[in-house]
Design goal:
- By secondary structure, this protein is an alpha+beta fold.
- The protein is 59% helix and 7% strand.
- The strands form three sheets. A five-stranded antiparallel β-sheet has the order 9-8-7-6-10, with no helix packed on it.
- A hairpin with a 6-residue loop joins strand 7 and strand 8.
- Helix 2 runs antiparallel to helix 3 and helix 3 packs antiparallel against helix 5.
- The radius of gyration is 52 Å and the shape is rod-shaped.
- About 24% of the residues have low confidence.
- One of its GO terms (cellular component) is plasma membrane.
- One of its GO terms (biological process) is signal transduction.
- It comes from Aphis gossypii (Cotton aphid).
- Its main location: membrane.
């Protein structure tokens, strides 16, 4: 089907139709443009939403819980989703909108040229038809004049009263009119022939060619509309895999939420280390007003009971007990210079212990950095001494002195906080650590550092790469990171019924300076029994191994009092290392 043959007489309608097609193409381009704006706006709002809900610096401590960590991970995935919507908008702009604009421009230019040609052809045929009509009218006029001249000649020839000269005059007039009529007739015939030829060419060749080109132009427009629609869908489909990965990341983050773990973290964060207060004594009025002292265990507050009433003595008060809210310290000018909050004395024992451990870990990290910087300066000095052309060795003396001073300051601060840690652990109530650890703490002078080294020696002995075990400083940092989890073992294992197992207690579990027992090859130690993993454990320390919930393991060495048990995987995947004792249930053999 062709427009040139089927629509030969619909020039005006075809011109209107092609213009409507161009308008539709422009409208589709505006639709894609507006959609890009919406995608960019949506992406911007998503990013703004993620930014508004990012944890503030003061809220970082709250984000140690698994639900908060999952929410933070979800925010990252939503931010990536926003990026994919930006990709959609950018690709639509570069691949679709730009091509539509080029196509609209080309179609408009081609249509304009074709319409100009068709207008020229129409003008030609109209001019020819007008010439034909003029020649026809001239022929008609000449024919009528010839007829009148013939009639006048016949009347004059019949009239006997007219002279021969008059008759001859009418004859000559008739001949002239007949000749003029014949000429008009020939002109009319020639114009008619030209008009018919031009009309045939107009409707069979010229205009059909114009219509054919208009048809191809319209089909090109329709074909490109189909291509643009399909390509727009492909642009969005191409980002689906990444969007699905983002959604999978949100699901994985949700699966990491562990209500039991969060409960343990809440206990570790807010546990004071005090025991509940004892019973109120009976006031025996028959004794004549004698008072019986009532002491709240672990608080240091003494209440004196008497026959009239009860009042609290002005003895020591530890913040965090029942009476902490009533304590008001007198603050003066000298208190600004004498107050020292670095020892965290205002916190309950368990929270103070945790803060001190974090402070020790932070100082150990700084100490490692300073030692590494000093080693670098020493190497640089050695290079300068061996080759003075590279630099002056004395130029590093000032930096070395400053680095040494910082190291000495950090060592003194570490010793200070180790003493505070020992003081806190010696004063903590039995509810905070295990009973046998309390007995080992009595009379310890520098037990914290020794315990850290002994615990890390146990872990590092089983490292297969033969690296040297961590020193005292590194063991302190290592144990500080292990102390971040405290798990109540009541009901989990008969070994620790009614006790609290703390991974951080490994610092104080070994009170003597005896060398750790020797370890043998992984296959030499016979298993002492079996155990089942109660929780999944991710190995973050050297010498420890990961385990999943419900895994069956062989016990190679019992807990030595530091909260760790040495286990071995069952064949064929033989692997040996330490796991938290509170994370396993030991089967009685």
């Amino acid at each position: 089907m062709s427009w040139g043959t089927e629509l030969w007489d619909q020039y005006d309608n075809l011109s209107f139709h092609t213009q409507k097609g161009i308008d539709f193409l422009e409208r589709y381009g505006h639709f894609i443009r507006d959609r890009c704006l919406i995608e960019m706006e949506y992406a911007g709002k998503l990013r703004r939403l993620v930014k508004n809900y990012q944890p503030k610096k003061k809220e970082e401590e709250e984000y140690q819980y698994s639900s908060c960590k999952a929410f933070k991970a979800m925010l990252c995935e939503v931010n990536d989703l926003a990026g994919q919507h930006e990709v959609i908008a950018e690709n639509l702009q570069s691949d679709v909108i730009r091509e539509i604009n080029y196509l609209v421009k080309d179609i408009k230019e081609e249509r304009k040229k074709l319409l100009q040609d068709s207008a020229k052809y129409v003008a030609m045929i109209n001019n020819q038809v007008a010439s034909l009509e003029r020649s026809r009218k001239n022929y008609e006029k000449a024919f009528k004049e010839a007829e009148r001249a013939l009639d006048n000649f016949q009347r004059a020839d019949a009239d006997l009263n007219l002279s021969r000269a008059e008759v001859e005059k009418q004859r000559m007039n008739m001949a002239i009119k007949n000749q003029h009529c014949e000429e008009s007739k020939n002109e009319y015939a020639n114009q008619l022939q030209k008009t018919n030829e031009l009309q045939s060419q107009h409707y069979k060749a010229l205009m059909p060619e114009v219509f054919r080109q208009l048809q191809e132009l319209d089909e090109k427009r329709i074909r490109n509309v189909r291509h643009f629609m399909a390509h727009s869908a492909d642009v969005e489909r191409n980002v689906f895999p990444i969007i699905n990965k983002c959604l999978d990341g949100i699901i994985n983050a949700a699966n990491q939420v562990n209500e039991k773990q969060d409960t343990i973290l809440v206990i570790e964060r807010y546990k004071s280390g005090f025991e509940p207060p004892g019973d109120f004594p009976f006031d025996d009025l028959s004794r004549g007003g004698e008072s019986t002292p009532l002491v709240l265990p672990g608080s240091g507050n003494t209440y004196v009971s008497s026959g009239v009433g009860a009042h609290r003595s002005e003895s020591m008060t530890v913040k965090g007990t029942m009476s902490a809210g009533k304590l008001k310290k007198r603050v003066g000018l000298f208190a600004i210079f004498s107050s020292n909050k670095d020892d965290y004395s205002e916190l309950p024992p368990n929270q103070r212990r945790k803060k001190i451990l974090l402070k020790l870990e932070e100082m150990q990290a700084k100490l490692h950095q300073e030692i590494a910087a000093k080693d670098g300066l020493m190497k640089m000095k050695g290079v300068y001494e061996s080759n003075p052309a590279l630099g002056d060795p004395m130029s590093t003396e000032g930096q070395l002195n400053e680095c040494s001073q910082r190291i000495d300051k950090l060592n003194s601060d570490i010793a200070k906080y180790q003493g505070l840690l020992q003081e806190v652990e010696c004063n903590v109530s039995p509810a905070g650590i295990r009973k046998h650890e309390l007995t080992e703490h009595n009379g310890i002078g520098n037990g914290s550092t020794n315990n850290l080294s002994n615990h890390n020696n146990r872990l590092n002995t089983s490292v297969p790469d033969g690296r040297a075990p961590l020193g005292e400083d590194e063991s302190l940092s290592r144990s500080a990171s292990d102390s971040s989890v405290s798990i109540p073992a009541v009901g989990l294992n008969n070994r620790y019924s009614g006790e609290t197992v703390s991974l951080g207690a490994s610092r104080n579990s070994l009170a003597n300076d005896e060398d750790p027992p020797p370890y043998y090859d992984i296959h030499d130690l016979p298993p002492l029994g079996t155990c089942t993993a109660l929780y999944a454990f991710e190995a973050t320390s050297e010498g420890s191994i990961p385990m999943f919930d419900g895994e069956q393991l062989l016990i190679i060495e019992q807990d030595q009092g530091d909260g760790w048990t040495r286990v071995r995987r069952q064949p064929p995947n033989v692997e040996e290392g330490f796991v938290p004792t509170s994370y396993i249930s030991i089967h009685s053999s």
